[in-house]
């Protein structure tokens, strides 16, 4: 409290905001932060810490701790994100195999782990061992025959339904925000939007558990996108432990950008790709220090995951390759019943997937097999070629060979799997469960790529004299590698869905270890983006953001229309005048009435209603908190107390109640544009400065206001879209 002097014998006045009070400077749910204000607050905080550090050794130590707190947060995020990813990978492997059988020696072992420990496993039958038994062997002592097949089929469906039902129930009851991929919401949050609870501790717990369940159920979805959400929940949790980040929404988003990089790092074993993904795809504000911290968090997460070794090969990569040649719904009838929707889709998926070996296995295993080159020791159907008995080539230099019956059988099964994956993924993505689109998209592309690769390989073998093969494919040479076609197809399909380019190429070569094939990956990424952009400029995540009406101003969108600020500002002609506060002529009751009768986020403050000369801007939330705290802590503040925003108190009649000074909550430098400013410039200003609103003036006189929602609605209208689809500010 400060003494404002004695006025008209009424005693001491106070600017009570000289003392901090709870919740000042915070934002309401589903509102956008003020980036300029957050930046200014952090600058003030840093200036105070720097000046205090010269006063004593203790203050100097505190300043060092503050400077290093960012790196500590990154270390903690990397450790927790890597640990959770490793646990999820191990649990998914075990529960996926649990649908088909159980390990008798240790029930917590997956099929592969169970047979690792067996001394009776042979190379030819490395997937078979006495310790691992299918459910038919365990229950009816039969491994072959119709009855055994039907029993295994039935239990496969039952396990899938149980996993899916438990997942959707947990999401619905405990953490509704745990559904979906999470990346569209993360992009929106990083742009400055507030969604309380989306990165909360319950969301973290439920998403981690249910992610294991839904992936194990066999639904056509991946865990990679949701792992970004999980990592950002970790980032939000650790940032709340440090006041530097918990009290500044702008600084918190720097941590979340780094957490997103760590999420991609553990999802794909791609720390560099994770940093580029955060920079290219999700981050809105990405200063240089965030780049270094993102890399550190991604590196720690990757090393943590490697120490857990969930893939059992001491590698970070999911699909290591070594070649020896250089959609979402908003409303549907079924969507109104989320539990029933999940059960129905899971049942359909399990029933159709089980008979086909390429859809029965997990999607990660399928992609791994499609990426693999056919060596002499491979036993896959895809490698059933007719070998020349007189061949004396080294094992790693096998020439092109004619396809055997196994390859033709696999082609039919892959064709059916391709159609199934495309159709079922459309319905699966968007259900009320954690669901990623990365791996299903890659699977579709990998299946198509492998089929094309086999086709080209056989054409090259049987028609090596054709002009397209003549110059580079001689008889008996290893001309075509189908696994490489699968890898390029996976990159192309994922790029077409998400519109990723640079980060996609880096993720793919980190994911597969195929650095020397970066050129075909680059060509695939660019071509897929061009083709997809011909159908529409939006990727799946941008489309999801617009579907939900989030106020996301994409830096990639172009605005070339010749409109002015006066065409967009409110109030428009025929509308009620702009709601404003005057600097020293309104009472507490007048301000409370204005707040109650409107739902605006803030109010311009003018000298008087006649002059409309602008002096600042006051946020709605801070007005409410200021008046509430003043009534509780300052004697004499009543409904007819004058509210003033000037340094000196106004002249009031004798015996009047104490006036209330609120200058400390007033933004004295709100961003303004003139009424003839081109909207192209206004849009650019909103993007680059992260504005929440700007005021429109002419010669210092207030004319109107433009909010972020107004900008987005105007852009939608100019693009012949529904402007009412933008629901939040």
From TrEMBL:
GO molecular function, one term: antiporter activity
Keyword list, A-Z: Antiport, ATP-binding, CBS domain, Chloride, Endosome, Ion transport, Membrane, Nucleotide-binding, Repeat, Transmembrane, Transmembrane helix, Transport
InterPro entries: CBS_dom (IPR000644), CBS_dom_sf (IPR046342), Cl-channel_core (IPR014743), Cl_channel-4 (IPR002246), ClC (IPR001807)
Topological category with respect to the lipid bilayer: Multi-pass membrane protein
Membrane-traversing stretches: 68-88, 153-178, 199-221, 227-243, 255-279, 291-308, 337-354, 410-430, 437-456, 484-509
Start and end residues of each CBS domain: 569-633, 666-724
Principal location class: membrane
Cellular component per GO, a single term: plasma membrane
Cellular location(s): Endosome membrane; Membrane
SMART domains: CBS
One Pfam family from the record: CBS
Name of the featured protein: Chloride channel protein
Organism: Junco hyemalis
